[in-house]
Amino acid sequence: MCLHPSGALKSVWLIFLGGKYEKIGILNQPISAVIAGLGHGDMLVIADAGLPIPPESVRIDLALVQGVPGFLQTVEAVLREMQVDKVIVANETDEQQPAHR
User: Fold this and answer.
1) Residues 70-85: pLDDT tens digits?
2) Catalytic machinery residues
């Protein structure tokens, strides 16, 4: 799965580059399946609402109501499930949500 932002991004997002890492904890089957299927160098993007997503990309929308689940709560849950080689943080993160840095 590979997502690349195009144009001016007005969103908070992270890209994780990593591989499989056997852990337990995520109850959401689609997320668990994506994490289990990651190979070395694959990308997983966690974003708040508003990130343009190419149609060929896998999209899992977790939104229940605005802010639930929270961005950082989602990131923390995913990080417990996979080994991360690299994190890419959007420049807009500081401008839009300085608390996420």
Assistant:
1) 888 999 999 888 888 8
2) 40
How do the domains of the chain map onto residue ranges? 13-100
Give the end-to-end CA distance of the chain in Å, rounded to a whole number: 24
Integer CA distances (angstroms), 78 to 8, 14, 93, 96, 99, in order:
26, 12, 19, 22, 19
Look up residue 89 and give its amino acid: V
Dist. CA 36–CA 22, nearest whole Å: 8
Q: What are phi and psi of 49, to 5 degrees?
A: -60, 145
Q: How far apart are CA 97 and CA 101, in angstroms?
A: 8
Provide the whole-model pTM.
0.64
